[in-house]
Design a protein that fits this description.
9-stranded mixed sheet, globular, binds magnesium ion
Length: 384
């Protein structure tokens, strides 16, 4: 079996539908589609800047450490995932090894697993070692509503949908401790038993300030506070994590195993949050999850994208004893809900792990065509 094409397909809601400053990344996506000469097609996805990922896939060969991913893949056997991954890593090493290139490599890697599963008739969880659970508990993840009253209403409505854990991210959170407390108090008063988390999106300047806010919010029993600090600040993170009365979570900003290993070894967080579409894919994910397990560090995958990312993350959760909980984006837009035919319904706060061969997802071609985005450079001024 040989690879005949690698495509990066960008889909996005029309930009005029949403104010730019309210974009949380759920309104666009980049799907990686790897085709083979025997007709099997694999799907992957990347949580990154879609247009940058498209450029990394499509870039023509330059010097031998600066190729685009498509040309590195053409003619290769897609079942040789580890060998091909290494070729991608080395073939991009002068402009890659982290950041957007590692994101793009992740998307190709997911598609290779999908191909191997389809070729063998096995779900990816089996290829990863076997499923230890058939369904995974998920937490609802959404942008923070603008007012405490709306936050309370969101909690009531998500609990009614079966969620037992909810995370608010961004929006008004992190600007003012009193405002943070009002939102958290309202959310807690809406339901005494649900697990609540907040994501302040790297917005606090110092660990001392983060500790003060964590102490202020301690009475409300938050499960964790996410990304309180700038991701490069490992020493302040370690200082905060040692003292905070509320668990500290982070890791989605990282794209290298080395960095995540440093976070585990220095215990800069209580909850590690790698994203398999950013750190190199499922093999890298398995290694990081195993490392965290050996260090007895809780791990909850970051997962804020379409059904392709949901499926890949569910397979890793199924195949990992220490991944009982998964993030689940509940933002209501067609990119999130309709890129794949599979919808991943939440029943009693859990989502079933796909059992079909490969990742177990298919593209909804009508949605894909409707929201397919022309190249950024090819757009007119008004389309931007
Ligand atoms: Mg986050």
């Amino acid at each position: 079996m040989r690879i005949t094409d690698v495509e990066a397909i960008v889909v996005a809601e029309p930009i005029e539908r949403i104010a730019r400053d309210s974009w949380d990344g759920s309104q666009d996506a980049v799907v990686i589609r790897v085709s083979t000469d025997d007709g099997i097609v694999g799907l992957g996805e990347v949580d990154s800047s879609p247009e940058v990922v498209r450029a990394i896939v499509e870039a023509p060969p330059s010097m031998r450490t600066m190729w685009g991913l498509r040309d590195l893949c053409l003619g290769e056997d897609p079942r040789e995932i580890a060998r091909l991954w290494d070729k991608l890593y080395r073939g991009t090493s002068y402009y890659g090894r982290s950041g957007a290139v590692m994101h793009a490599v992740s998307g190709v890697e997911l598609a290779l697993w999908d191909i191997l599963g389809r070729a063998t008739g096995l779900p990816v969880s089996t290829l990863l070692g076997g499923a230890c659970r058939q369904s995974v508990r998920v937490y609802a993840s959404l942008m923070t509503p603008p007012t405490p009253e709306e936050a309370a209403e969101a909690v009531r409505s998500l609990v009614a949908r079966g969620f037992s854990a909810i995370k608010f991210g961004g929006g008004p959170l992190g600007r003012d401790p009193a405002e943070d407390e009002a939102i958290v108090r309202a959310a807690r008063s809406a339901d005494a038993g649900v697990e609540l988390m907040i994501d302040v999106g790297q917005c606090w300047d110092t660990a001392e300030h983060a500790l003060r806010v964590a102490r202020l919010l301690e009475p409300y029993g938050l499960r964790w506070i996410e990304e309180p600090l700038w991701p490069d600040e490992l020493a302040p993170y370690a200082w905060l994590t040692e003292r905070s009365p509320v668990a500290i979570a982070a890791g989605e900003a990282e794209s290298t195993e080395a960095r995540l290993r440093e976070m585990v070894e220095r215990r800069t967080v209580h909850v590690l949050q790698p994203d398999v579409t950013r750190i190199g894919g499922l093999r890298a994910g398995q290694r990081v999850v195993a490392l965290a397990r050996a260090a007895a560090l809780e791990t909850v995958l970051h997962c804020y994208n379409t059904g392709i990312t949901k499926a890949a993350s569910l397979h890793l959760c199924a195949a990992s004893q220490n991944l009982p909980l998964l993030e689940y984006c509940v933002e209501d837009n067609p990119i999130q809900s309709a890129v794949t035919r599979q919808q991943f319904p939440v029943v009693d706060g859990r989502v079933m792990v796909p059992t079909e061969p490969g990742l177990g997802v298919d593209l909804d071609e009508a949605t894909l065509e409707r929201y397919r985005s022309p190249r950024w450079g090819a757009r007119t001024e008004s389309e931007r």
